[in-house]
Amino acid sequence: MTHRTAARPAESRSVAELVSDLTDQIRRLVRDEMRLAAVELRGKGRRLGAGAGLAGAAAVLAWYGGAALVAALVLVLALVMPAWVAALVVGVVLLLVGAVLGLSARQQVRRAGPPVPEEAVTGLRQDVETIKERARR
């Protein structure tokens, strides 16, 4: 689209010029929406990466802390029962708690849904509806 063509009123331009302008504008609009989607996904990816890194560090520290507490619990129970029974009881309880947490985690992941650039998709849908409305006029 040339600057001279865009400066002229729509009434004085030919249908071919108007169609060409529309094509250029739609192409630019789609390109801009794709850029928005890419920016949005990059931002989400960065946040996801940072969160995953922090979660990994937290998990390692929790693992060591939990192992120390499990050992302490087994040693305390070993004062009132044979050590192997104390270890068995603690192991079974830990497996049950782990199973409950695993089921909860699966439920949360299912609720999260797919990583979709929602703002860009919404903007693109609105743009398409606007174009359709103007085309009907």
TrEMBL record:
InterPro entries: Phage_holin_3_6 (IPR009937). The keyword Membrane applies. The chain crosses the membrane at residues 52-77, 83-103. Keywords: Membrane, Transmembrane, Transmembrane helix. It comes from the Bacteria. It holds the Pfam family Phage_holin_3_6. This is Holin-X, holin superfamily III. It comes from Streptoalloteichus tenebrarius (strain ATCC 17920 / DSM 40477 / JCM 4838 / CBS 697.72 / NBRC 16177 / NCIMB 11028 / NRRL B-12390 / A12253. 1 / ISP 5477) (Streptomyces tenebrarius).
